[in-house]
Amino acid sequence: MKKSLLALAVLGAFASAAQAQSSVTIYGIIDASLSYNSKVATTGTGNGNRMGVDSGAINGSRIGFKGSEDLGGGLKALFNLENGFNLDNGAAAQGGTLWGRTSTVGLSGNFGAVLLGRQKDFTDDIAAFTSVKDFGGMVSQVHARDLDRTNGERVNNSIRYNTPNINGFYGSAIYGFGEQAGQNSAGQSFGLGGAYSNGPFNVGLAYFQAKKAAGSATASDVNSSNATTCTNAAGSAGDTCLKTWTLATSYQFGPAKVYGSWSRVKLPLATAGSASSFSAASAASYAADSTGQYLVGGVNNEKNDIFDIGVNYGLTPALSLVGSVQYTRANFVNASNGRLIQLNLGTKYALSKRTSLYAIYRNLRASDTYSPGVTSGQAPGSDSSQNAFNAGIIHTF
User: What is the pLDDT of residue 17?
Assistant: First the structure.
């Protein structure tokens, strides 16, 4: 009996030690809002107002699992699995991929961290210094339909290295394998970047490029809303189809945080279409034509410059006012340049550390280009401007 009790005590001690050396966390974000969008395209060149319940207007709704195991000597094993979903209808996000937001495993230590799987590049890290921090997906369309990747596109089949933070300096590099036999360069992607954060000041620079895959395949979320850029574009498998870099900075002046960023998106495989001017292609309609011209990310869009400035002003510890402006200049092959301007105004109120309310108004105007709309999939059809309003709640756990 005494031996049995002693054995149980020893096993219990080992179990406690093992539990202390590893941990698993369940976490998530739920973002739901009542929404209004003006001039959403219906049929032909018509449009109408839309009202409904939206999920993930600012932060994509998600549930995730992350954990670590202490392997000794400062070495740890890490994993992260994160599923995206739409709260309004219960459907899976990211095209129905189970762990569509993140699925990684790796090691960390004094050398930094190495992660394998489906994950974001460093552009997403420095997006925290931009208006994406306050407005999230609400500004992704004017950010060249997120071709600049500031709203968090992923790279499949990737390996990412994160440096340790040294006196505020840190960086990362990522490589995505195309995994196409006999065509090693087809579908490949690569990114790197660095940042400095010290007290109220943050600044970062990131670069990413992708190559055209073979056929209709794509190895990365090069642009989740438009397949033209790297899948159906001209050129051959292995040709570079996207190059983008972002410079972002922010500074906290007492209760006011100001931020600014510039992104350049280059699409080397852009080609001229059948029409020679925007007016001829549009025929008084801002709904994108069947050739995909004069649309950000379309067949003849060769370059985009995105400028983003804004402020978050804390009136009280719980209440803040937010505002930002984005300007996108789109260059088209053998055509005049187009412009997108979006204004965002709103307020946020923290009910607790985990629950907050928000109300955001947006206006987007297009000139000499088709309007992508303030919300993905809700373009304004035959009109060049659109308004939207969201009032919602965000709960984290």
Answer: 42
Residue 371 vs residues 168, 270, 293, 296, 340: alpha-carbon distances, Å: 40, 19, 12, 9, 8
Distances (CA, A) of 51 to 31, 33, 332, 391: 17, 11, 34, 12
Helices (H) and strands (E) in the chain, counts: 4, 17
Query: Are the C-beta atoms of residues 213 and 181 closer than 8 Å to each other?
Result: no
Of 344, 360, 359, the residue nearest 309 (C-alpha) = 344
pLDDT at position 47: 84
Helix (H) or strand (E) holding 6: helix 2-21
Q: Tell me: the pLDDT tens digits for 336-348?
A: 789 999 999 999 9
Count of other CB atoms within 10 angstroms of residue 14? 10
User: pTM of the predicted model, to two decimals?
Assistant: 0.89
Q: Please write the tens of the pLDDT for every residue from 191-224.
A: 999 999 999 999 999 999 999 887 655 555 654 3
Among residues 367, 359, 374, 372, which one has the least CA distance to residue 323? Answer: 359
> What are the tens digits of pLDDT across the range 240-251?
999 999 999 999
The answer to whether the CB of 149 falls within 8 A of the CB of 139 is no
Residue 241 contacts residue 265 (beta carbons within 8 Å):
no
CB 33 within 8 A of CB 371: no
Question: Are the C-beta atoms of residues 214 and 239 closer than 8 Å to each other?
Answer: no
- E runs forming strands in 227-374: 240-253, 256-266, 301-314, 319-332, 338-350, 355-367
Q: Does 128 score more than 90 pLDDT? A: yes
| C-alpha to C-alpha distances, 132 to 44, 167, 344, nearest whole angstrom | 33, 26, 11
Cα distance between residue 371 and residue 367, in whole Å = 8
Q: What is the pLDDT of residue 180?
A: 84
Per-residue model confidence as pLDDT tens digits over 347-388: 999 999 999 999 999 999 999 899 999 998 898 887 899 999
- The values of phi and psi at residue 152, to 5°, are 90, 65
Residues 6+ apart with CB under 8 A from 336: 277, 278, 368
Give the position of tokens 């010290």. 198
